[in-house]
Amino acid sequence: MRRGFPHFRDYRRRVGPTHPRRNVFTLKDEKGFTLWFTGLSGAGKSTVAELVAKELQSRGRLVEILDGDEVRQHLSKGLGFSKEDRDTNVRRIAYVAKLLTRHGAAVITAAISPYRETRAWAREQIGNFVEVYVACPLEVCADRDVKGLYQKAFAGEIPQFTGVSDPYEPPVNPELILETHRETPSESAAKVLHCLETLGYLPARHPAPRAVH
Question: What is d(CA 66, CA 205) in angstroms, rounded to the nearest whole number?
């Protein structure tokens, strides 16, 4: 697995020796989908996404992670943090996710994506869309912050910081809610996989969620 935006010529190489005949043209036989993780900075989106991605790969799926920080660096470089720029960033993520989903990939996005309206637009564009709300209290997210961004935001040194000086709009009806302050990352990942099985995006493997190690 690697993050970022793949070239289609890389697909066959990255599928691995267990699927010697698979390539980009046969991926359409699999049901592509986008897992859209949303939540505050520090909620645990990327941590859970990595665990889910590893398990999906072990099941033979082609996985692409569109991480919020990497998208900012490569696809949305130069954008700020106004509502308009945040919406533009999410729309760009959704566009790439739509293309990959169309070709049968399992796409995982891990970006804050704070506004309901823009997430609803992404859902409409992508189609096979699974919204996962990574719920975690602000104070817990701040305690986890090793970069000290929350501390700077509370002090007014970082303007337009989501959850502090800029709004975050929680999903109203997501496919799944994870409470990462009450469960381990492996327990959260197991719930995501069970959700995908229930929705028909993955063959059922277990009758109930289990921890992913």
Answer: 26
Model confidence pLDDT, tens digit, residues 41-54: 999 999 999 999 99
Between CA 22 and CA 12 the distance in angstroms is 7
User: Annotated catalytic residue: which of 41, 76, 113, 188?
Assistant: 113
Instruction: Give the tens place of pLDDT for each residue, 19-39.
Output: 433 444 445 467 899 999 999
The CA distance from 184 to 3, in Å, is: 23
Structural domain spans, the chain:
8-198
Q: State how far the Cα of 37 lies from the Cα of 32, in Å rounded to an integer.
A: 16
CB 61 within 8 A of CB 11: no
Query: Is 46 part of the annotated catalytic residue set?
Result: no
Q: Is 213 exposed, middle or buried (0-12, 13-18, 19+ CB in 10 A)?
A: exposed
Q: Hey, what CATH class is 8-198 in?
A: alpha beta
